[in-house]
Amino acid sequence: MSTTSDSSAAPTPPIPALALFSLHGSVALVTGAARGIGQAAAIALAEASADVVCVLRRTSSSESTGEHTDVDHRVVPPSRRKAEEGTKPGAGVGGKVDDSEGAIREGGGEGGGEGEGGVKEKEKTQDTIAALGVRAYVVYADLEDMADVKTVWPRALALLGRERDGESGEGGEGEGVEGAGGEDGEGAQGQPRIHILVNCAGVQRRHPSVAFPEADWDTVLDVNLKACFLLAQAAGRHFLSFDATSGSGGGGYGRGGKIINFCSLLSYQGGFTVPAYAASKGALMQLTKALSNEWAHANVQVNGVSPGYVRTDM
Ligand SMILES: NC(=O)c1ccc[n+]([C@@H]2O[C@H](COP(=O)([O-])OP(=O)(O)OC[C@H]3O[C@@H](n4cnc5c(N)ncnc54)[C@H](OP(=O)(O)O)[C@@H]3O)[C@@H](O)[C@H]2O)c1
Q1: pTM to 2 decimals?
Q2: What is the pLDDT of residues 46-59, one digit of tens each?
Q3: Which of 137, 140, 253, 277 does the annotation list as catalytic?
Q4: Residue 35 CA: which ligand 1 atom is closest?
Q5: Do residues 24 and 196 touch, judged by C-beta distance below 8 A?
Q6: What residue spans carry the region label Disordered (predicted)?
Q7: Which one of 51, 81, 143, 294 has the lowest number of neighbouring Cβ atoms within 10 Å?
Q8: What is d(CA 20, CA 15) in angstroms, rounded to the nearest whole number?
């Protein structure tokens, strides 16, 4: 056995370990991104270079004052806004984007009289994301309202489509805003793409089971379970609409996608005075397994995360 080494051989290039975890070129849609764990998840995805669509309620339950636009939009950091305004041929197409962004950002000024402490906290997520140099989008929805929930995915795709068409100067028929949200895979190779869904929004209601109000049961099951299913269904339709060899829509990911559902220790345990929450989180874990079984063949990974106790408003 020779122990001599060939000094003329090229050194092994360093393994770009962090690059293996990069989400550059991918788009993540995150519910509950206004605060708490969802906010942290949205920012973490942005730190990994993903563009992020934040799904926010029009008026956060943590905000006592303030109104703001309910127009979905993209957030551009002030430092880049001027440059982009000058170069973007699609500023007209996505006019709503810039208008609403200005209205929100200017807060207590011409944006509609939001007070200090009003929409500011909610803005933190998208501002932080935009400042990381990736794109931040906002889609407004009340996840208790299933009619609203069903529009989230198409509206997010429409928002991405408006920007893409604006940037490229295209905007041809069938690829624009209206065609972007197709659920049946038609035109999939031309449509904008979302790669990751994070179902993080959640609510808790505590009452002894004998007195648990039916309305609270419905709220918890709707937000924590039904909305997650409807969003996962929309995501699944989208992910499965790409063919295995396609690299279209950005990122070159082929067919597939990721769904991450925020479950709970209460997916495993019963807790006390939280029957609706325990039922919703137990069911969400079962839903995670069911979707995972059904879509794994198409490179769609559905996973659940069950955090321990985290100090949030919940
Ligand atoms: N904190 C914990 O210890 C813990 C442990 C395990 C699992 N989890 C799970 O982790 C997830 C995040 O919890 P968290 O502690 O971060 O909660 P949080 O601080 O109370 O935040 C909840 C988020 O969900 C959003 N949301 C609630 N109802 C909504 C609705 N009807 N429409 C749209 N958005 C709505 C809230 O938006 P607004 O700001 O508009 O209200 C907020 O962004 C939840 O699914 C929770 O069950 C939490």
Answers
A1: 0.81
A2: 999 999 999 999 87
A3: 277
A4: 43
A5: no
A6: 59-124, 163-189
A7: 294
A8: 9
User: Which pair of structure tokens corresponds to residue 216?
Assistant: 């609270």
Residue range 24-305 forms a domain whose CATH class is: alpha beta
Among 308, 311, 305, which residue's Cα sits nearest to residue 41? 305
Q: Does residue 61 carry a pLDDT above 70?
A: no
- For residue 37, report the distance from its CA to the centre of ligand 1, in Å: 7
> Cα(302)–Cα(226) distance, rounded to whole angstroms?
16
Name the phi and psi angles at 56, rounded to 5.
-125, 150
- 224 alpha carbon – ligand 1 mean position (Å): 9
Question: Separation of 281 CA from ligand 1 center, angstroms?
Answer: 12
Tell me, using a 6 A CB cutoff, whether residue 200 lines ligand 1.
yes
* 125 touches 54 (CB < 8 A): yes
Q: What is d(CA 152, CA 291) in angstroms, rounded to the nearest whole number?
A: 20
Closest atom of ligand 1 to 263 CA is 7
Q: Is the pLDDT of residue 179 over 50?
A: no
